[in-house]
Hints:
mainly beta, globular, 4 helices, 36 strands
Amino acid sequence: MSEQSKGRKTMKKVYIPAAVMLGLLVPMTAGAEEAQLGGELELTPQLVDINGSKAKFQEYRDREDGIYGNLRLWQESENFFFRFDAENISYDDQSYRLKGGSHGKYKFNLYHDEIPHNITFDARTPLAGAGTDRLVYSGATPLNNPDPADWNTFDYQINREKQGGGLRFDLMKPFYLDVSFNHEKRQGIKPAGTSWNLVPGGGSRRVMEMPEPVDYVTDSLATEIGYALDPFYAALSYHYSTFNNNNEWLYYMHPNSGTVEGFSLAPDNDYYKFNFKGKAKLPLRSALSVGAGRGVTEGETVLRNQYLSDVGAPVAVNYSDPVFDGKLVTTNYDMVLTSRPLNFVNARLFYKYYEKENRSDEIIVDGTYQNHLFGYEKRSFGAEVGFRLPQRVTLTPSYKHVKTERDRGDLTETKDKIYGVKAKWAGLDFLTVTASYERLDRDADWQLLTAVIPGDQATADGIEPFVRRFDAAPQDRDTYRVTLDLYPMDNLSVVLGYRYMESEYTDTILGLRDEENTMYDISADYSLGRLTLAGYFAYDITEAYQYQRRLLGFAFNPDPSLGAIAGSYNWSVEDEYENYDFGVSAQVEVVPGTLRLKAQYDHVRSDGTGDMSIYDAGSLPVGYDNSTIDFENWDDYKKKSLQIKAIYTVNPKLSTTVGYAYERYRYSDATLDDYDYRVASDDYLTGAYADSSYEANVVFATMKYSF
């Protein structure tokens, strides 16, 4: 961890939100009648030993040597109630929450939450200025500092602080008013990157990873006014938020010339939405729910009038408009009708509409390039009807139709027909069986897309007829599920589950063709006297097959049926991901009401492989064949964790817990194994996401006092 972060951690202090929240209770409780205050105070000294990646171990938490404290207070009376919770006081994942009110009159809540996102500690870069919007070299180019051991270190880390609260008034029933506000700040550094050419004009593409500053502030306000009196309910709400990035650009020195270059960061924007929702009860034990909303997101950014070429020379850019105005408008409405006309029949009918309209600027660059705007409309309707049959059987057939229209160049429209049926049998007191089947038939309208750059249209004309992108490609998908709930004894329960899903992309020649997933899981718990045992096991495997074609240069033939010709050849890859997850736990009452022992062990493992085939012997890398170009470690990881605790109750107000926790995480991936900060001498990496394996031992003791 960098010295900057170490210094920040040594200066930890208790945040004032706790005092502010508690101070607000004084005037609120002044008029309340006498009521006994209750609460709990926990103090936990902890020793932590970490070998390996401290950032991965503490990815979304703050765990180190120290004393952790939790505080809970509550009060309940006829006219007033409140609860205050403070956890991990003074640490980077601390939180404070206060809620209370007067029954039937008002309710309030306040909170302050913090959470870190630790990515990599002690990352390295030949640039100076990490954490700011301007990165510079110590020399004219990075080549003046070739040894990563001499580079500057920093932490990839983002800290989030969020405060807010709300107030609800019920004084004028059946009307109510609800108002809430939130303030969120994110500060830190995350990975970014750029590419460049060593050789002027191209031919030797290189990359450089860089630290991007994060300094975001988001403020939001929401209000809702409603009416709730049986048999009607209606509410109108408004939400507004504004996002501000204190760094509009990230400037860096060009690797070839040392001239300052820059790229834009997340722009400021405003968002607002109006929403209505309502519900009315109808005859035949029916109810109609409706909803409608409209939201708008707006922002703008000034476009730079030049960029730096491969050699770092300025190149002018001409825009049809130098300011880009972005605007997205979303519209939604839905209706749901539920009914139970007969005791053995219940039905649900629904219709939903959602539109995302892109009203942003379309800007022409240098009279040639023009950005394409993406938006879509989705309409869906369907029904499901449940029948209660003899022998404690429930049968529920269903149908759903989804039509999606997209503003994109290739797959402009899809129609999904989803058929399903679910059956449940509870004919035995100790056994319940649930089974379901779902079928998806997706049709899509395809057209030849228009390339963003007109000069690329010939390439698109050649390859696009064979390509169907999987997010909207036509497909057939079958899904089967079976669940068994067993209760053979009062003190034993077992749940067994199975799911199988298969997708076939029926119109795809180049792209993802098939995907298959199988999942098994079992969980059980058993009690015998003072002993309680529990365990679970889950296994799933996903297999995917894609077929592709390599196009080399401009003298290519895109038709895969021609095999290897004119610098083009076909290849495929079969991906396989196996996931294992199991755990066991035990709890025993050594001395009833006084001493308990708990133990929990969890194991998670994922194995990924990529079986690659190149259908042209002359295109295989020298020294390789189709059995040696495969990826045996494709996003592989293992995590083992063990926790043992002894809980001793001294008296009803005082208890202590002594425990030990162990975690071991191992990660391996073909793209990150044998990581090097310098790739091919002129690629500059920082260490983001590298070497995330760790082993940690934690010893802790907790004292809890209740009053």
